[in-house]
Amino acid sequence: MKYRTSLLMAGTSLALGLASCSTPEPESKTTSEQTEQVSDARITRLWSQSCALCHVNGEAGAPRIGNTGEWAPRLATGKPLLIKHTIEGYNNMPPLGYCMACTEQDFSNLIDLMAGGASE
Questions:
Q1: Whole-prediction pTM value?
Q2: Measured in whole angstroms, how far is the alpha carbon of residue 108 from the centre of its chain?
Q3: CB atoms within 10 A of CB 70
Q4: pLDDT-based confidence at 19, cuts 50/70/90?
Q5: Of 92, 78, 68, which is closest to residue 120 (Cα–Cα)?
Q6: How many Cβ atoms sit within 10 Å of the Cβ of residue 64?
Q7: Domains of the chain, with CATH numbers?
Q8: What is the rounded distance in angstroms from the CA atom of residue 106 to the CA atom of residue 51?
């Protein structure tokens, strides 16, 4: 498990490093594709700066990233409730999940990232 966590963190660090020093994209990319890439990089950065603290190893009962079995029952309550709990805090989750810069849409995207394909 520690090996998987180390790989995940190394991959995240590598992705962030590559994103910050990559060459400009060719102009053939559409504006929506460029916006999506910026959004993905932002979500990855926000996740690594705040969510990873608890959601890599499941600290304090947090559902682990990519563990669909842990995310499915939470998603079954509906994403609006998950976002409310994220913003207000719930059980061991602190308000805003330590992400003071996150918007409601960011939280939605972060939940999607961490749920890793769990059915909604």
A1: 0.69
A2: 9
A3: 19
A4: very low
A5: 78
A6: 20
A7: 2-17+34-115 (1.10.760.10)
A8: 12
Would you tell me how many other CB atoms lie within 10 Å of the CB of residue 63? 22
- Tell me which residue has tokens 């059980």: 91
How many whole angstroms separate alpha carbon 56 and alpha carbon 67?
A: 10
- Both tokens of 25, joined, read 């994209």
The amino acid at residue 73 is: P
Tokens of 83: 């976002």
Q: Taking residues 4-31, report their average pLDDT.
A: 51
Q: What DSSP string describes 6-50?
A: HHHHHHHHHHHHHHHHPPPPPTTS-HHHHHHHHHHHHHHHHIIII
Q: In this structure, which amino acid lies at residue 91? A: N
d(CA 98, CA 95): 7
Count of C-beta atoms within a 10 Å radius of residue 3: 7
The Cα 39–Cα 7 span in angstroms is: 23
Distance, in Å, from the CA atom of 49 to the CA atom of 97, rounded to the nearest integer, reads 10
